[in-house]
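Quick check before the chapter quiz. The format below is the same one you will see on the exam, so make sure you can read both the input and the output lines.
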Amino acid sequence: MKPRSSIAPIPPGALDLAGDAVRRRRQLQSRMLERLEAAAYQEIIPPTFEYAEVFVRAGGEGNEAGGTPSDLSDRLIRFLDLDGKLLALRYDFTASVARLAATKLADHPTPLRLCYAGKVFRQDPGREGRRPREILQVGGELLGADGVGADVEILRLALGLARCADVTEFQVNVGHVGALAQALATLAPQDRAVVRRLIDRKDAAGLAAAAPGVLAELPFIIGRREALDRAAQLVGDVAHPNEGVTRLHAVDAALTDDERRHVVYDFGEVRGLDYYTGIHFEIFVTGARTAVGAGGRYDDLMGRFGRPLPAVGLALDLDALAEAAP
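Here is the expected output.
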């Protein structure tokens, strides 16, 4: 075997791809863009870099990973422009979509259906070198539609895009911010943060001690349609139904039996609760150790760019999918 040269190593988290690895990613990208365009989503190509403030503004009180704006700033790959202004490589597409919809597409009627494909660039200071810093994504955003139908449309897109990967089994874990919100709102802010960490760790004993009642039970409800019924009995009544559970019931009613076969309702997901405002979900496929996609409703984001609109969208990690799928 010819020894490998160490003259020009690549940075930690960067990827060198060739052969089948490239072909598989291009195949997935092409199939998924075709699927999105067939659903009337218009492809956009935003810049690879933006002013760093665009991504921080989009993060608001939190971001998809559940962090704070300062956490997000640390994850940006930043550099100075010639005029001294701070730029950043594209952290996600959603921020660029929001900026574009509020500027170049400001006169376009809603709903706006936009899709994209390309790389995002993220640092993880706590895990430097142990995860990729460039990720190939495909995604879509539906702006200006706030009904159950819009949530169902995006969830169906998630199922359709997962099928594009020809995986043997896949599952979409769905939740809703409103399911836990009412119970969490009764806690003091410092207690709320503690309880959310306990929920994230699935610490049953800790939750029973810190927040007995709904918050000690609801996060452990996971399943198909029957999970919705169990959650409804726990957190609401006829006079005061839980907004999140009611919305998920409506979403479930709109799905076909075949679609429901791939949908699981999970009331224990708290990451991203400061970013999402309604439905949220993660996509899992056979062979992948973590989620290969995520999405949800983020109605607060567009207003930060001067054009308040309800919004819901999703993005898939083609690198993770290519490694998991045949």
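If your answer matched, good. Confidence is low (pLDDT under 50) at residues 62-67.
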